[in-house]
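Reviewers asked in the last cycle whether our approach scales beyond single polypeptides. To address this, we selected a multi-component target totalling 506 residues and predicted its structure end to end. The input consisted of the following lines:
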Amino acid sequence: MQKYSVFNLIKNAFTGHKDWEVAWKDPTPKSEYDVVIIGGGGHGLATAYYLAKEHNITNVAIIEKGWIGGGNVGRNTTIIRSNYMHDDNARFSEFGMNLWRNMSQELNFNVMFSPRGIINLAHSDAQMNVFSRRGNSMRLNGIDAVLLEREEVKKIIPMADFSENVRFPIFGGLMQPSAGTARHDGVAWGYARQADSMGVDIIQNCEVTGFDVVGGKIKGIRTSKGDIKANKVGLCVAGSTSILAEKLNMTLPVETHLLQACVSEPIKPILDSVVTFGAGHFYCSQSDKGEMVMGGDLDGYNSYAQRGNLPTLQHVLTEGIAMFPFLSKLKMLRTWGGIMDMSMDGSPIIDKTHIEGLYLNCGWCYGGFKATPASGWTFAHTIAQDKVHELNAGYSLNRFHTGHLLDEKGLGTKTWIS
Amino acid sequence: MLHIKCPYCGMRSQNEFAYGGDASAKRPELNKEISDLEWDSFVYLRKSLRGKHLELWHHISGCRQWFKVQRDTATHEIFKTLKPSEDI
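The resulting structure, written as structure tokens, was:
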């Protein structure tokens, strides 16, 4: 594989940049693989990469219905954080933070990881108490957390509404200084390029139409490009999980919902951290191009549309303007939607299934992007060793049956309860 | 903006309504012995269909009645709305 470096950039400049190798090939599928990963998003690509790198399993195919990076890995708001209270979530996401920190070097691809910090705003004394509890739990798990007083928050985001006669005055906030953002499609491309160089076949525009299950064991998959045999199949398809589960006669604790995001026109640098509104669901950061990147609630009803509806956007931006009044002066540049695999307790599932050789990775709700490396790493381990790693032991499928829910924030499918 | 026909009030815009989830999930019969599996299937497991989906909506900023809607989850087209006691 050709290394990306400043020397290679200069060298290729002399030949008009015509001699760069393709970043990944476009192979026709073989009839058999050791492992097939369904879904060429961030998690699927990362899984294939770690299967090759950590477990030396390179006879692997990634089957993608569209094109790699065309789903949620290219549709999110690029936030990376590990500010969780529950031990299972904290350990898993902090393990991921360490992978993020070295990702650009490891993948030889600039994913523009920018640890600019995240601030969760608090709007009451009670919320400050809850945040101090969460901050203490984070610190016990080795994650950096700082409880900020109102005046400290004001120094970092002076443009927020600090007046006292507003409905939700800012009391303070909880900050994770090591959190940040990254270039989302760079993550997909970086993993794809490395996985391809180690022998993984990335097969795009290939839809999975069925599964071959014999005697409780997976034997292969049927696709629009023919049948492929494999004794191990990993499902990594986010919002399409329920569609494939139906083909396997499985019903899962997951519903597919629509989540929107939007960016404003680019403006001069004003915000150098990620900020979340504490009295509703709104979050905001500023991209390197200057756009304000914003997101919030689900549209609220089951949807596979990948296309949002205006009332939710209006609701989310109303919260945004309550937090940062200057946003009302900006024009929106783009809005878009992605379909989320919303689990019933708001936490993901990375586990084996009752079908031998079939592995499940789903339920990422609002937080799939930041989990990309840790999800790929633990899913690869689960597939390669045929057993869950201690990092994803809490993300079991049967926790809904045994009652061991990971209800970190109560952010499941049922936004209507709030 | 979805336009939803409340069976009691007629056509109204989406922001008068709240979503109530899959209408095909049936609560196990009262006072009947059931297994944990039946109970957690009712509470947690959903088909999450792509295409025609029967679901509950609540006219929360209107008559406050619950009702059923048959809607396409891929196109958002609404085919039919029904009172809770009615079946498709």
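The longest strand of chain A covers residues 332-343. We regard this as preliminary and will revisit it once experimental data from Aim 1 are available.
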